[in-house]
C-alpha cells in the first residue's frame, strides 16, 4: 500500500511539473526568440561601395532598380518578414496545442480504462475472498460435525462393548450368547 502511495505522489509531482512547463514554456520561448531576434537584427549596416562604376553597364530600360539601393535597410520588408514569421510561429503553436490536446484526450481515455479494469479486478478479488470465506466456514462446520460424529460413534461402540460386542465376532456366536443370557 505504501508503494502505491509513493507511486501516486511521484505521478502527481510529474503531472504538476509538466503542467507548469506547459503553461510557462511558450511565453518563455517567445521572450527568448524575441531577444535573439533583436540581437540578430541589430548588426551593423552592410558596407558596400555602390558608387563605383561596374565593369559592364546595363541599359537603363533593362536595369533593375533594386540593385541601386543594395545597402539600404528597408523597414517595410523587414516588418512584413517579421509578420510572416509571427504568423508561422502562431500557426505552429496552434498545431502543437491541438496535438497536445489530442494526446491529453488519449491519456485521459487510457486512465479511465485503467480505472475500469482495476475496478473489475477488485470486484473479482472481493468475490474470490468471499468464496474463500464461505469455503472456510463450511470446512470448519464439517470439522465440528466430524468431531461430534466421532464422539457419538465412540459412545455407541462403548455401549456395544458393554453389552458384549467383540471385534471379529460372528453373528451366530453373538446370537447364541445373547440367547443364553436371556435364559
From TrEMBL:
Q: Where is this region: Disordered?
A: 150-183
Biased-composition ranges, Basic and acidic residues, are: 158-169
- Pfam families in UniProt: DUF1068
| Regions of compositional bias (Low complexity) in chain numbering | 170-183
Q: Which GO terms describe its cellular component?
A: Golgi apparatus
Give me any GO biological process, just one: cell wall pectin biosynthetic process
- Quote the protein name from its UniProt record: DUF1068 domain-containing protein
